[in-house]
Structure to design on (320 residues):
């Protein structure tokens, strides 16, 4: 049985789709907190509830006793730890929940994985750990002591904890640095989802800075391909970038959204925000070599798929 924490979230629910589709037994842990509407997360896993291979437990990963009951009560072979408090800008304004969930929660799961002899621990990290780097594309062996947000610092701390547990106790641990994942079910506060909603509503899009910041936007199917490959290959301790290995500026992202949606964006120019970085750009050669990772989704194809999902869901929620 595979334990997936945060399995009702954006990436987690897509991962569960893939695991159930190939016949795995999946135990999903989620606390359905109010970082965004819990009803969205429940909708994400609505189809999973009918599968005999799917078990849902509502629990908080920070609660050691609750998590130990999970490990005691189920024959867990691997842990995929996706649950986290997310959001760079939110972490600047309110950092304490990030420390409690992303550090204490990760330590809790690592310790229980040690005690219950888990075969492989997979940790979802973030491209934000690279911080204010000037050399691109980012490689996994770069020094990452220039984090610029509490969120990034907690993800780096999680990686360090993973490395320490592998060193001390020997079980395989894989850390995956996700680069700006997007696609159907994306969280509503993330840029592509937020911008699309504002374009459809005819409301201004807040454009922070001059629009020249660049991101390595990674379609969720490509992320999931890398996660599943990592789950299946326990190599020891490894860190992998999962990205498309191409970048798109903020202004070009908005232009693409306009072209695909057939609607005009209204821009509200704002100063650059604390915690933002100029560029994220993944070198994925290591993941290609060791995981057979092969991202294939262009930004145009990915945005088209997202907008189709968005339009359908807007119609469904509106009752038309």
């Amino acid at each position: 049985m595979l334990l997936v924490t945060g399995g009702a979230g954006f990436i987690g629910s897509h991962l569960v789709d893939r695991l159930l589709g190939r016949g795995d037994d999946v135990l999903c842990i989620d606390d359905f907190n109010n970082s965004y509407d819990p009803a969205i997360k429940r909708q994400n896993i609505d189809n999973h509830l009918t599968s005999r291979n799917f078990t849902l437990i509502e629990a908080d990963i920070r609660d050691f006793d609750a998590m130990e009951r999970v490990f005691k009560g189920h024959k867990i072979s691997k842990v995929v730890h996706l649950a986290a408090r997310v959001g760079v800008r939110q972490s600047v304004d309110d950092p304490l929940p990030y420390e409690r969930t992303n550090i204490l929660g990760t330590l809790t799961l690592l310790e229980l994985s040690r005690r219950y002899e888990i075969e492989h621990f997979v940790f979802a990290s973030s491209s934000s750990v690279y911080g204010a780097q000037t050399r691109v594309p980012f490689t996994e062996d770069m020094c990452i002591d220039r984090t610029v947000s509490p969120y990034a610092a907690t993800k780096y701390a999680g990686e360090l904890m993973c490395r320490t547990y592998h060193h001390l106790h020997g079980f395989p641990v894989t850390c995956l640095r996700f680069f700006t994942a997007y696609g159907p079910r994306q969280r509503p506060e993330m840029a592509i989802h937020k911008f699309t909603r504002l374009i459809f509503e005819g409301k201004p899009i807040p454009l922070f800075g001059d629009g020249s910041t660049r991101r390595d936007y990674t379609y969720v199917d490509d992320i999931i391909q890398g996660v599943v490959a990592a789950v299946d290959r326990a190599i020891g301790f490894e860190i992998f970038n999962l990205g498309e290995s191409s970048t798109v500026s903020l202004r070009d992202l908005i232009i693409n959204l306009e072209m695909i949606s057939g609607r005009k964006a209204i821009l509200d120019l704002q100063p650059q925000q604390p915690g933002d970085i100029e560029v994220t750009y993944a070198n994925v050669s290591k993941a290609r070599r060791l995981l057979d990772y092969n991202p294939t989704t262009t930004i145009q194809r990915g945005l088209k798929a997202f907008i189709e999902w968005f339009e359908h869901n807007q119609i469904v929620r509106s009752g038309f």
The longest helix spans residues 96-115.
